[in-house]
Each structure stands twice: as structure tokens, then as C-alpha cells.
Amino acid sequence: MVENLSDRCLRENRDAFDRMVGHRFVRDIATDALPRAVFDRYLLIEGEFVATAISIFAFATIKTEDIGDRRRLIAVQHALANDQIPYFEKLRDRRAIAAAPQVAKDPRVVAFDRGMFDIAAKGDLPQILAAMFAAEWMYLTWCQRVSSNPISDPDIRKWVDMHTDADFSDQAHWLKTRLDAAGAKMDEAQAAACSRIFGTVQDLEYDFHEAAY
Ligand SMILES: Cc1ncc(C[n+]2csc(CCO)c2C)c(N)n1
Predict the structure, then answer these.
(1) How many domains does the chain divide into?
(2) pLDDT tens column, 136-188
(3) Do 201 and 116 touch, CB atoms closer than 8 A?
(4) What sequence ranges are listed for the domain Thiaminase-2/PQQC (predicted)?
(5) Whole-angstrom Cα distance, residue 157 to residue 169?
(6) ipTM of the assembly?
(7) Which conformational region is residue 151 in: left (phi greater than 0), alpha (psi within -120 to 50 degrees), or beta?
(8) Is the shortest distance between the CB of 171 and ligand 1 below 6 Å?
């Protein structure tokens, strides 16, 4: 049987993927030892990324003509704008996290946001699917791995639960299946480009999470 494109991405980028799901941010959550200040800084940069993610899914919406794709992509944008953004605003207030513009300007954060935005702006639909599959599959993987561990900060607990629940899992699986469908119709150069993007995203993610420390 021919290998699915999503499985090829995972196989060809196993080292980059494993490095990211083994990041100290993940290890610290797994051992219930993430410093509060690190999670607070993470929430600041993560909130910015949610705004970027709206743009990424908007590019994908433009670049597909399939109404089923469009419904799904618009629903994601709706959830990001109306659930995720208010969620981050409330969390920042409740944890009394001071705005820290220097954190958002960290070159590793800028490289991640720019890098993801540019893939979506310049790439075709399959390349955007590969980038978001990379980001979401990685979160689904590490959150599932740590979810049975004790986590004492209720906000971190909730964050892990949000990335193992049925909605998020369904979304990550949709990206996987949709990438595979696109992969079945492309030539070798296009498939190789998607796999390279998958690896690039893992590296950008690694540096982004470093910036929280
Ligand atoms: C830095 C960072 N990378 C990946 C995710 C995973 N993730 C969760 S929701 C979403 C976009 C909409 O589905 C993505 C990519 C994250 N949260 N933060």
C-alpha cells in the first residue's frame, strides 16, 4: 500500500517531531514542575499566535473551492475569534499577567508567527494543511501523553484537556485526512515540499516554546 502523505511527514521528520514533543516545556508539565512565570509568558505569546491562526485559516479558506472545506475552515476561524481570543483575555486578567511587549518581540516568537503566516500566504492549500497538521498533531500527541499525570495548576490542566477533547482531536484528524486526500493527487515534488514544511514547523515550534523560558 502507498504511504499516506501525513504518515510520510511524520516518518521523515520523526527527529524534529520527537524533539518538540520532548521539549522542556512539555517535560515540565509532565512532571508538574512548570514555573508559573513560564506559563504566564507562554500565554502571552500563545494569545498572539491565535490571532495569526485566524489569518492562516483565512488563507486556506480562499485557496480551496470545496464548500465542505470552507465550512470547516470558517468554523475554526469562528472558534478562534469567539472562544479562544476571549479565553486568553480572561486568563490574562485572572492571572494578572502584565503585558510584556519584549516577549512578543522575541526573535523566536516573531520567526514562528512570520514563518507560519508566510507558509499560508505563499503556499497552496496542501502546504497550509501540512503546516497546521504539524502544529495540531504535535499538540494532540504531547497533551495525550501528559494528560493522565497530576497537574496542579488548574489553568494548565484545562489547557491540556482542551487539546485532548473530542473537538480538538476531531480537528487534528480532519487535517490529517484532508492532507492525505490532497497527497493522493500530487506529484513527488509537491509531496516532498509538504513534508519539508512539516519539519520546518516542528523547528519553529521548538524555538517558540524556548522563548517562554
Ligand atoms: C504554539 C502552538 N502551536 C500549536 C498549537 C496547537 N493548536 C491548537 S488550536 C490551533 C489552531 C486552530 O485549530 C493550533 C495550531 C498551539 N495552540 N500553539
Answers:
(1) 1
(2) 999 999 999 999 999 999 999 999 999 999 999 999 999 999 999 999 999 99
(3) yes
(4) 17-213
(5) 17
(6) 0.95
(7) beta
(8) yes
Q: Locate cell 521528520: which residue?
A: 13
Buried b (16+ CB within 10 A) or exposed e, 138-147: bbbbbbebbe
> What is the set of active-site residues?
205
Is the CB of 88 within 6 Å of ligand 1?
Answer: no
Ligand 1 midpoint to CA 128 (Å): 13
Q: 154: which 3 cell numbers? A: 488548574
Q: How far is CA 169 from CA 58, 137, 193, in A?
A: 21, 9, 25
Grid coordinates of 150 = 497530576
* Domain boundaries, position 189: 5-210
Domain CATH code at residue 158: 1.20.910.10
User: Against a cut of 0.90, is the pTM above it?
Assistant: yes
Whether ligand 1 lies within 6 angstroms of the CB of 49 is answered as: yes
CA distance 135 to 189: 22
23: three-class secondary structure by DSSP? coil
DSSP string, 90-150: HHHHHTTPPP-HHHHT-HHHHHHHHHHHHHHHHS-HHHHHHHHHHHHHHHHHHHHHHTTS-
